[in-house]
Specification:
This protein has 14 helices and 17 strands. It is of the alpha/beta class and about 400 residues long. A six-stranded mixed β-sheet has the order 6-10-11-9-8-7, covered by helices on one side.
């Protein structure tokens, strides 16, 4: 056993095995180091530990009681599974050792609020998170994806967590798969076929009920957006916006939260959903608001933005949006479709206004142009509707 002491942190490097033959001596040696080296926090680096028995687990438990700051890092997969199965991962910080991979030169196949999805090879994709401190978010997304899968939603399930640069990623096996964005780009003449499959999956998601405690309530999130935006809108517009959102009833049906053609994949003949960290519950209007942003809202000021985001031109994006609305609503009346679009646009621009302001949009000229644009869109649209329900 090696050790180092830096800035009050005592790090112990264990290697080999801890079992009934040596657990007591390991514990004695560690306690001796505790007493001899004054420290504030303790780390056990188990990068070279191949096995731990029940005797070793009891040693770790006693050390944790002696030193509540104790955490374990670089734990090999097979050793981590032992800690996980016995409940230790719920009692203390235990960090798994993660394989390092590079995304240099990899194709970007998806793009969400919290990260990007890349194709590593023909069989594998990885979602890389923007925030380096994202392990809790990764675990949450994996839990949400698992829940959706159990409820019958065809979604890719992550089978590994990896280190990607300074951040982390989740790895999925998607054999010979393509995003709907890529399929549409290659085969735009069959846009109706992709719309049908896309909306069928959307309806399946919206028909699925979830336990309220397991998912973010999108209604409350949207109320928070409206209350934030109210301060940047004319008084009567801000008041009505908040009232419109509050009037949307609670709904425990599932929403994806970021349902666009880069987050829907075709694997052979099966349609699969990816990027599940935005999974939530709520009224479908909140989903349509997010979809409006993907296909039109983000590109209101610059129609070329959709090309960068989805890989298709604005005309194709707009056509896909209207065809999707038509199939989802089950109507051909364009006037009625445009009425629903107004409601979705209110949700979409409300979100964009808050997002831009919170990201420093008032601090430069270009940012202020977008803030003014989104505020003017809300000022124009809010008086035109009496309800956000569809």
């Amino acid at each position: 056993m090696k050790f180092e002491l830096n800035d009050g942190v005592l790090t112990l490097f264990l290697e080999g095995r801890i079992d009934s033959n040596n657990a007591q001596s390991v514990e004695t040696d560690i306690i001796g180091l505790y007493e001899f080296h004054k420290h504030e926090n303790t780390i056990l680096d188990l990068g070279a530990l191949d096995y731990i028995s029940s005797a070793g687990l009891r040693t770790v438990l006693r050390l944790k009681k002696m030193d509540p700051s104790l955490k374990l890092i670089n734990v090999k997969s097979e050793v981590y599974e032992i800690f996980d199965m016995t409940g230790f991962t719920e009692m203390m910080t235990i960090e798994k050792a993660y394989k390092k991979i590079s995304i240099e030169g990899c194709e970007e196949v998806g793009h969400g609020a919290n990260g990007k999805v890349y194709r590593i090879d023909n069989d594998t994709i990885v979602k890389v998170y923007n925030d380096p401190d994202c392990l809790d978010d990764i675990k949450r997304e994996r839990a949400l994806a698992k829940k959706a899968f159990v409820l019958g939603i065809p979604t890719a399930i992550s089978y590994d967590i990896v280190k990607v640069g300074d951040s982390y990623g989740t790895v999925f096996e998607l054999l010979e798969s393509k995003s709907f964005a890529k399929l549409l780009k290659e085969d735009v003449k069959n846009i109706d076929k992709y719309v049908d499959m896309y909306v069928d999956l959307l309806k399946k998601i919206h028909a699925t009920k979830c336990d309220d405690d397991d998912m973010v309530d999108m209604r409350q999130t949207a109320i928070n957006w409206a209350q934030f935006d109210k301060e940047y809108l004319p008084v009567e517009i801000g008041d009505k916006l908040v009232s419109l959102v509050k009037a949307v009833p609670h709904d425990s049906h599932m929403l994806h939260g970021d349902f666009h053609i880069k987050n829907v994949m075709m694997q052979k003949n099966e349609v699969l959903l990816i990027d599940m960290d935005t999974l939530c519950v709520g009224n479908p209007i909140f989903e349509l608001g997010s979809m409006f942003n993907a296909y039109k809202g983000f590109s209101t000021f610059d129609h070329n933005r959709v090309k960068d985001f989805l890989g298709i031109d604005y005309d194709t994006s707009e056509k896909f949006w209207y065809l999707s609305l038509k199939k989802y609503l089950g109507i051909d009346d364009m006037d009625k479709i445009l009425e629903v679009e107004k409601k979705a646009a209110i949700i979409g621009y409300m979100r964009l206004l808050r997002r831009k302001i919170r990201r420093g949009g008032l601090e430069d000229q270009e940012g202020r142009k977008l803030v003014d644009l989104y505020a003017s869109k809300l000022t124009e649209l809010v008086p035109q509707v009496d309800t956000l329900l569809i």
